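Late entry, written up from scratch paper. The run itself happened at the end of the previous shift, but nothing got recorded in the book at the time, so transcribing now.
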Amino acid sequence: MLGHEITHVANGDMVTLTLIQGVLNTFVIFLSRVVGFLVDRLLLKNERGYGPGYWVATIVAQLVLGLLAAMIVAWFSRWREFARRRRRQPGGREKMILPSTG
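Output as recorded:
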């Protein structure tokens, strides 16, 4: 198992996933603040400063968008793992799944 994890490091998986997570986190923060601003200004009609609507909407948007970003990172991680295994092992997905379920 340790050799498997070292292979991830050698193939650059850790760097790639770190960069993807960082980019997605940037989008999460930016988009959540845009959502908070729109909720505060358009829905709650706050004209000066940031009201409670901005902060609540920002926190909720960060939670929702952060969950979506985590799902994207998890999907990409699994995609890379299975793509590497497909290149090495003939026989399709079924033969890959059996050893991991036992």
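The helical segments are 2-10, 13-43, 52-88, 93-101.
(Scratch paper discarded after transcription.)
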